Amino acid sequence: MAGFTCPPTSGMRTPSETIHTTSCRMSGSSPAPRFSLKTEACIDRVYLKLLLTTFFWGGTFVAARFAVKEAPPFFAASCRFLIAALVLVPLAAWQANREGRSFPLPQSLRHVAGLFSLGLTGVFLYNAVFFTGLKFTTASNGALIVAINPLLTAVLSALWLREKVRPIQAAGLLLSLFGVALVIARGSLSVIVNHSFNKGDLIMLGAPLCWALYSILGKKMLARFTPLAATAYAALFGACLLVPAAVLEHLSQGGPVPQFSWLGWLAILQLALLGTVVGFVWWYEGVQRIGTARAAAFVNLVPVFGTLLAALILNERLIAAQVWGGCLVVVGVYWGSRQPGSRAVGGADQAGSLASTGKG
Question: Residue ranges of the domains in the chain?
Fold first, then answer.
């Protein structure tokens, strides 16, 4: 992303570089690439930012649990994306100005409909099930269920485009779904037989589906808008949908207007700024610097951070079924997302399309 990558270096040599190059020639060896240390340091910072991004995304499950304890789901989601939109829209305008372009505006009703669909699927619907589900289930379960996002997106995208689903994708998805079933059933056959599922877990199953639709629709919009502009529009349209829903939610429930404590507002700021804005910027910096395939591998760390933070901050106790189910989810996603001829790919192209808005 322009403006967030390491600055280019000039072509002038310092005296030390000249001496080093001369000595290499005299000794018959090839000179080391210039600025290699600086380039390596820059790449190291990118890897650190990607690691922190997945940490922030894992933290959104804990933050959402705090938020829905103090306010209804739509009110919490509205606060999150009102703040995020107020930051993302000026940021997209700043990026366009920095690149010498005007702010990208929709040129047709088709563009408006496409951007609206991003706000509907990736912000409104995703966060409706995200916050509502986490009101009834644990943050660790939510993180493990949503972890199937990348692979489900890849499979549905292939079906949407009428492409053949590779056997390894199908096997990985089945393995991940088995892991999710193990988590939801808490490792107990009686839960399945008696249909005594936690309703929050069942609601959370809608999150990966919403995210997959968001990513598929987003690919079309990226032909016209930059990722930052598309995400800004998604946040803006999503907030416009969430606010009326929050009003209806309050009218139906009655009582005083919801208010957050300082801890609740801290959770909302984590969701809006770290989980959405900073996560977006750092994610696309990573995609630009090291490529989609390498960056996508970091997505597999989100459920790991989510469950660890839930245990540390919320004192959620992990049971064996969650550990084994989570391992199956991560292995299935990693395995099913591998590209032909590559050794380690985590989320394929879908992870590099539209990222942080709906990632928890």
Answer: 48-352
